[in-house]
Structures are given as C-alpha cells and as structure tokens.
C-alpha cells in the first residue's frame, strides 16, 4: 500500500458506517410508512409455504434488509403470531428479496453517478422532514437513507487502499488454489458479514474490490456466497434471549443458508461458468477477462446475477423440504416445560428490537398475558374469601397471591422498559400513540394486582381482629366479585383485539362498570342499615366494605385500561365517552 495512513483507514470505516446508517434509516423510514401494513401482510399472507415465500420476498424488497425481515419473522414466532413452518417459508423468501438490494447497488452504484444526486435528494428530503404529515416525514427519512447509502458506497470506493504489485501477487497465491481458495473466500465473506451484520455492505465492498481487479470474479462470488451464512448471525443473536420457538426459527434460517452454500460450493466452478454465460447472453461480457469501465459494469451485473440465481435455485429446491427443516429444528432444540408461576416474559425480548413498528405487536400480546395473569390472581382472592383462615390451605393460597403480586410488579417494569426501548427507535406518530397508551395500560393492570393483594391483606387483618362475616355478607362479596371477574374477562377480550377495537366493543365494559358502581353504592347504604339493625358488628361492616370498595376500585382500573385502548387511536374512531366514579 502506498502512503495509506491510519486516518485513511478511519475514513474507510466511516464510509462503511455511512453506508450501514443509510440502509438503517432507509429501512426504518419504510417501516414507518408501512408498519401497520407490514404487520397485516406478515400475519395474513402465510397460509401456505408459497404465500409465505411471496411475503418474505415482498417485505425484504421493501425494507432492503434480509436481516431485518428475518428478525421480524423471529419476533413473530416469539410472539406466537406465526408457526415455525410458516416462518421457514418467509425466511426462504427473504433470501430472494435481499437480491433486490444487490441489484440497486449494482445499477445505481455503477451505471448511475448517484453521488451527484445525493445532496439534492437530501435537500428534497429536508422539506419533507419539516412537513406536519407524519407519512411525508417518513418518506423524507427514506430518501435521506437512500442518499447516505450511496454516498457511503462512493466513499468506500474512493478510500479502499490502492494495492501494489507485490500485494496483488500475494493475493494471487490464495486465489488460485481450487476449492481451498473457494473455501477461504467463503469464510472471508462470512466473517465480514458477521462483523458488520449486513450482507449488502459486504456486497458493496466486494463489488469495489472486484471492479478494481484486486480479486477475480470467481473469488468475488465466493465472498458473496459466504455472506449468505454471515447474515444469519443477526437473527441468531436476536433469538438468544427469546423463547424456544424463536430460537428454532433462527436456527432454520441458518440451516437453509448453510445447506444452500454447501451445494453451491460443491458445484462452484460449473455454477460460476453458468453465471458468466448468462452475463454474456445479457450483453454484459465476461467479467473474468474484461478491464476498465467495462469490467466494472460486467462485474456488478454478474455478481447480482450470481446472488439472484443462487437464491432462486436454493429456494426452488429447499421449499419442498420445509417440513424436514422444522423436524431438524425441533430435534436440535427441545422445548422446555416451565412452571407457569415463575416470572417470565412470554412474547417479548430485549434482543428483538430491530423493527420498532413491528415490536408493538409483541408488546400487545405480552400485555394480554399480563392481564390474564392478574385475572388468575383475582380468582385466587375469590377462593381466599371462602377458605378458612389459619389453615394450611389458606396460607398456601395467600402465599401464591403474594407471589403473583411480585411477578406483576416485575412484569410491569420489564414491559415498560421494553416499550421505552421501542419508542427510542424510529416510530410513526400512530406508533408513538400506541406506546403511550400501552404504558398507561400496564400501570393500571399493576394497580389491579395491588388491589387483589390488598383484599388478601384485609382478610388477614380480619382474622387477626377475630372478626367474622355472616352469610349475607359472603353473598354480597360473591356478587361483587362475580361482576368484577366478568369485567376483567371483557377487558382481556378488548386487549386481545386492541388493533381492531371499535366503540361497540367497549360498550359492555362501560355498562359493567356502571353496574359495579351502582352495586357498591347499594351495599354501602345497606351496610349502615345492617349495622344499625345489629345484623353484624360494626367492625365486621368495616372489613366487609374494605373488600367491596377494593373490588369496586378494580372496576375503576379496568375502565382506565379501556380508556387507554381508546386513547391509542387519539379518539378518532371511537364514539363512547367513558365515565366512572
């Protein structure tokens, strides 16, 4: 290398960083424009392996990152929104979809001087960024990302060190050893992609090196081949803290790319000859013999053809072995049975945060689990009311209620932390509304758990005070708890259908809240009369109303959850006005 300083090396790293940042901003901008649509597509278009493949191609072509789309799929499997078999089809499609990135880099990066347009495009995007319309802002972000991506590509080309004859001779020693060279360069492509976590960036780097003639076309193909394995590291890392199903999906992605690479390495040289023949048929010449500007165009198109044909053939063969992949994943990763009363988040994981818009659905599913767990806690307090105090059974049940209260506190904190991380990403205005609503919702659910624990503690204090309830009081407590239990069930139905809720869906909750309030008021009046009539002691009436009031307070928290669901849509499409006292 001639006069290549450490500053030049840092400039090269900065160029790669600008390229990756541009891709990230471009991807996130598109996610914000079509986040809800992508959730719908991924949820609905996976009924069979072929529609799943089409979905993977479409999503990856849109967001320009197979790693991001695969992480989305792993997240959906983690959230129980997609089966392992469905995820395999989408992952296979994602590998084909990522070839669109290669073609964009190939066409715009070589045939068009996009750098000349980059700054004017940024100027246009700034106008969109200051628009009041959130959709236009997201489009502006996409254009900025697009500009940064190709500015980075141009800077990579300008700052890769020039190699002298000795260095070229040194590289030549490693590029003419048959299969050994192929394996070496496959490993190089895999290692580079694992480090920078972007096969597109690897493609851009190897395109620059090949067009400058530093490595032959065949070895450039080997590097691109290795990047197909390297790109699987991102979803694997994302799945480490996820559930077993997500780990299986990430493993399936690795196996698909690994087996595809194996057969291509075995047939590598005939396969490269096929690619060169296709390149010549398309009028782009033989990238192994051309020089100068013709070499740059021929290599860029040739590498794109290699990437596309490899993934298409791999898909055409592997799609018929989807069930075999599922069996292998199930065999290698055994599902573990877990205690349902141990603290664990079922659907969300801090490792699955590559797609903020799509992470919202995981949080929604986890909130439903949270609400169901608190409902079980309330059912325990109902049982506690009719369990004889001081017995082993009562102590065990009281201990379970206490344990659930601790779990509730931890779940609130973990879900809130997750939501705060999601909101730190690039979200649409609607996405931010939903995050804000969810934070309020989990706070109210935690308050329900606190009230359940307060009822249990009231029963303990009642025992310590040697106070007893009469049959009429037990009947009234049962009636109130039945109403609250029904309200909890209605609340969970609304939470489970949060994205598609309407005003009519909220009416039962509002009616139930009014019924709970009216019954509390009725019992408050009757309690004073019963004490005056000496039906039971004054202190018994105090503990009785503590339980009734705490249950009614749960009804208030429930309706606050419903208001939270309503607020996530900014009250735009919901008609009822929620009132409670």
Detailed description of the structure:
The protein has helices at residues 6-44, 49-63, 66-78, 84-97, 99-111, 115-129, 134-159, 165-175, 179-196, 199-211, 217-230, 233-239, 244-266, 268-281, 292-318, 322-332, 356-385, 392-424, 429-464, 471-496, 503-532, 538-567. The protein is mostly helical and 581 residues long. Helix 1 runs antiparallel to helix 7, helix 6 packs antiparallel against helix 7 and helix 10 runs antiparallel to helix 15. The longest helix is centred in the first third of the chain and has 39 residues, at 6-44.
Structural class: mainly alpha
Helical fraction equals: over 70%
Low-confidence stretches: 163-169, 337-341, 570-581
Mean pLDDT, all residues: 77
N-to-C terminal Cα separation, in Å?
78 Å
Shape: elongated
Q: Count all strands and give the number.
A: 0
Q: Calculate Rg over CA atoms.
A: 31 Å
Helical element count?
Answer: 22
């Amino acid at each position: 290398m001639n006069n290549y300083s450490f500053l030049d090396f840092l400039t090269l790293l900065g160029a790669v960083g600008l390229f990756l940042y541009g891709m990230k901003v471009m991807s996130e901008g598109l996610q914000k424009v079509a986040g809800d649509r992508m959730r719908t597509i991924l949820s609905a278009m996976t009924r069979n392996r072929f529609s799943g493949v089409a979905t993977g191609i479409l999503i990856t072509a849109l967001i320009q990152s197979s790693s991001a789309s695969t992480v989305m799929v792993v997240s959906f499997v983690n959230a129980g929104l997609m089966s392992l078999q469905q995820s395999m089809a989408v992952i296979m499609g994602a590998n084909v979809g990522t070839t669109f990135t290669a073609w964009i880099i190939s066409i715009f990066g070589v045939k068009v001087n996009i750098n000349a347009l980059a700054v004017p495009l940024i100027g246009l995007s700034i106008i969109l960024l200051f628009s009041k319309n959130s959709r236009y802002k997201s489009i502006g972000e996409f254009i900025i990302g697009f500009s940064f991506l190709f500015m980075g590509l141009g800077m990579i080309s300008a700052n890769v060190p020039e190699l002298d004859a000795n260095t070229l001779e040194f590289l030549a020693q490693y590029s003419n050893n048959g299969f050994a060279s192929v394996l070496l360069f496959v490993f190089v492509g895999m290692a580079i992609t694992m480090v920078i976590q972007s096969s597109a960036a690897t493609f851009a780097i190897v395109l620059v090196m090949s067009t400058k003639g530093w490595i032959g076309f065949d070895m450039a193909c080997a590097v691109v081949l290795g990047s197909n394995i390297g790109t699987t590291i991102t979803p694997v890392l994302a799945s480490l803290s996820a559930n077993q199903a997500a780990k299986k999906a990430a493993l399936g992605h690795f196996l698909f790319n690994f087996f595809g690479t194996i057969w291509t390495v075995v047939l590598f040289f005939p396969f490269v000859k096929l690619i060169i023949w296709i390149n010549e048929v398309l009028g782009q010449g033989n990238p192994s013999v051309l020089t100068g500007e013709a070499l740059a165009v021929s290599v860029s198109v040739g590498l794109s053809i290699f990437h596309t044909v490899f993934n298409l053939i791999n898909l055409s063969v592997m799609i018929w072995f989807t069930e075999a992949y599922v069996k292998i994943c199930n065999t290698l990763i055994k599902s573990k049975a877990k205690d349902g009363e141990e603290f664990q988040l079922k659907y969300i994981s801090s490792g699955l945060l590559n797609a903020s818009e799509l992470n919202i659905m995981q949080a929604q599913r986890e909130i439903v689990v949270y609400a169901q767990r608190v409902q079980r806690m309330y059912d325990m307090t109902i049982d506690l009311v009719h369990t004889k105090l001081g017995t082993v059974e009562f102590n065990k049940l009281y201990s379970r209620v206490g344990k659930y209260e601790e779990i509730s506190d931890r779940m609130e904190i973990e879900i809130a932390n997750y939501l705060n991380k999601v909101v730190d990403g690039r979200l649409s205005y609607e996405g931010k509304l939903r995050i804000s609503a969810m934070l309020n919702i989990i706070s109210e659910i935690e308050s329900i758990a606190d009230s359940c624990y307060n009822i249990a503690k009231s029963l303990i204090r009642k025992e310590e005070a040697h106070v007893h309830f009469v049959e009429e009081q037990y009947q009234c407590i049962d009636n109130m708890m039945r109403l609250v239990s029904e309200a909890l069930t209605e609340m969970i139905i609304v939470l489970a259908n949060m994205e598609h809720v309407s005003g009519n869906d909220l009416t039962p909750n509002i009616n139930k809240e009014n019924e709970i309030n009216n019954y509390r008021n009725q019992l408050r009046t009757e309690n004073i009369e019963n004490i005056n009539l000496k039906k039971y002691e004054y202190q018994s009436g105090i503990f009785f109303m503590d339980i009734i009031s705490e249950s009614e307070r749960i009804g208030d928290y429930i309706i606050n959850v419903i208001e939270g669901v309503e607020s996530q849509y900014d009250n735009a499409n919901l008609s009822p006005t929620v009132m409670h006292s």
